[in-house]
Amino acid sequence: MKLDKSQIRNLLPHREPMLLIDELYDIKKLSSAKAIVNVKKDSFFVQGHFPENPVMPGVLIVESFGQAAAALTAYGLDKSTYENKLVFLMGVEKARFRNPVIPDCKLILKIEAIRSHGRVWKYKGEAFVEDKKMADAVWSATIVDKK
Fold first, then answer.
1. Given strand 105-117, what is the order of strands in its sheet?
2. Count: domains in the chain
3. Structural domain for 35, as ranges
4. The pLDDT of residue 51
């Protein structure tokens, strides 16, 4: 199964420029998926981080992990479960940034749901450019009412 950006937009509340995930694929319902983030030379963060040597900020890599995990979870749940809900990041236990992510690349995220307990989910992810590991993280998130 594969979801494009417009399908992801139907699952997540994020909008441009903060909707970072361009595609979600290899989806195993409520278990794992891969995501693509097209890091472009005109991405909103390039202008100021750092103009002469642009790098995707680590916090946006973690945000990308979170968005991919939220899309994976929303896709796997019954629509009534996530409708009128938001997914909030609760904590990042481990995040390692191994190599800088330079614009004009395709960042591939591999996401796995480790466990869920009620509305709280725990995930792990790895980010790659080609076959080179750029970052990895373990984080938790919760599903809450929009109000």
1. 2-4, 23-28, 32-39, 105-117, 120-129, 132-145, 85-97
2. 1
3. 2-145
4. 82
Beta carbons within 8 Å of 102's beta carbon, 6+ residues apart: 39, 54, 55, 56
Residue labelled with tokens 């591939």: 108
pTM: 0.95
Which one of the listed residues 30, 49, 77, 103 is annotated catalytic?
49
Looking at this protein, which amino acid is placed at residue 108? I
Q: Say if residues 39 and 64 touch (Cβ distance below 8 Å).
A: no
| Residue 39 φ/ψ, nearest 5 degrees | -90, 110
Write the pLDDT tens digit of every residue in 40-86: 999 999 888 888 899 999 999 999 999 999 999 999 988 887 778 88
Q: How far is CA 135 from CA 50, 64, 82, 109, 126, in A?
A: 19, 11, 29, 9, 6
Q: What is the CATH number of the domain that holds 68?
A: 3.10.129.10
Q: Note if 49 is an active site residue.
A: yes
Amino acid (one-letter) located at 90: M
Mean predicted lDDT score pLDDT of the chain? 94
Residue located via tokens 């980010």: 127
